[in-house]
Amino acid sequence: MHVISVSFLFMVYILGGMTAILGLWLYYDRRDRILCDRQRFRHVYRCIKCGRLYERRGQREVAPCPDCDYANDRLRF
Ligand SMILES: [Zn+2]
To answer: Distance, CA 56 to ligand 1 centroid (Å)?
Structure first.
C-alpha cells in the first residue's frame, strides 16, 4: 500500500499553481502582442493617380486611396 506524504501533495499543489500561472501569462502575453501589432504598424502610401499622401494601420501591402479609391503599394524607405 502506497502512502502519499503531505509534502508530496503540497509540492504537486505548488507545481500545479505555477503551471496555471505560467499558462495564463503566456496566453495573455501572446494575445496582447497580437492586438498591439495590429495597432502599432502604420504604413504610408502615396497615390500614383492623384498624388495624395495617406496612411493606414495594419500590415497591408496595398491600400486604396481615400480620394480616388485607386489601390497603391506602400512606400518603402
Ligand atoms: Zn488617389
So the answer is: 14
